[in-house]
Amino acid sequence: MSILxxxxxxxxxxxxxxILGRLLNYLLVPLYTRVFDTAxxxxxxxxxxFAAFLNILFTYGLETAYFRFSNTEKDNPRVYSTALIxxxxxxxxxxxxxxxxxxxxxxxxGDAGALNEQLPLYIIWFAGILSADALTxxxxxxxxxxxxxFRFALIRLANILLNIGFNIFFLVICPKLIAADPHxxxxxxxxPAHGVGYVFLSNLLASLVTLLLLLPQLRPLxxxxxxxxxKRMMVYSLPLMVAGFAGMVNETFDRVLLPMLVKDPSTALHxxxxxxxxxxxxxxxxxxxxxxxxxxxxxxFSHAGKEDARQIYARVMNWFVIGxxxxxxxxxxxxxxxxxxxxERFRSGLxxxxxxxxxxxxLGVYLNISIWYKLTGKTSWGxxxxxxxxxxxxxxxxxxxxSMGYMGAAWTTLxxxxxxxxxxxxxxxxxxxxxxxxPIFIHSVAAALVLYGASxxxxxxxxxxxxxxLVNTILLLLFPLSSWVLLRRKTRxxxx
Length: 496
What we know:
Number of helices: 20
Largest sheet: none
Number of domains: 2
Shape: globular
Oligomer: single chain
Structural class: mainly alpha
């Protein structure tokens, strides 16, 4: 049990830093929307939309490869330096390519009006951000692998705070100081024409400082590269890159296709706005899955060689699905409060929230199950699963969105993630059987849905607000209680 407590503790640390970081980043939105006009902010939105795909290209699955090979080749000190040098070399190539073709790449952004002259510079700064973040990927992976969760979290938070600080300095403090005193020494350096470019410059400076904070993790560079090891790591990691690209299709293409496929073009942007806003209400499940992975990936690899590894993986899954069920209920039972995070005009889309929560629940289970092809080196299976999921996503979006609008997009997301979860489980039990407890998963899903249904039924009697929250709190607590009763016998057996 102490092993699982350690995993839970690290997940909590990663979770706290991720949630706090996300909340702090939200503080920049009111600033941007007051400083920039819609066209300028559109440039920010579009370039950062590319970041999700480009981050996958810049790191090409090498983080996971590092976890795997650092455990399978414990006597090879060059695993870390090989991964570092590979990332450094490819990052330099990618940065030079983007910088050299910054002017042609501006066409991908479209007509930015008065910003057109500045766009090549913004793209170079953006390439710098991607490069700096890529260079930190392996050092951050090593911190996770060494169970240095506090250091990982502190450096991540430092990055976010620096980014916010630089944004405030460039977008608020500098203009005010220069307006008050046109001869201020900052006036000879500050360029108001850069405007939205200071968003990218702020991010770049924060990323460079983060890289400096990770310098102690860069010393093994001098150990050089093992070419044979590198080739094996590439064979392992490149399918993960393909899986990452396909996964991005699963995650983002519903919002790309939605305005194109709705029957009534006049409502397209309205539906996209409603769907996008309500999508954000499922963020707690997304954050839980993400933070769990920070701790779980190195945990799984470090225990791969132990006799009871598969039993441990099964127990981790039990607690993970219970945690997901608790979050599902926590969001849905208090939706009358959580809904105020979005404007009243967007709340017509609230019925998509339970669907999206369940979809991300399935995604989290899939990511846990996927350890089988990472441990066995059969990463091509991960690519095939993701490609199959992407194909299903595209097909169902084309079939459902025209008739169902954003509800079709939500159901597509759930069906896709449930599909890849099932096929990964079935395939994994053939190549790397893990005794996952299916009754626990079925119980968690069923109990969450039944308790949510009970809440809707009971509160349909017109309960007053205090009694309403009391009933929902009791229902929420019943979920972990019922799960604990179910797990008690098995937990005792495992501990003995």
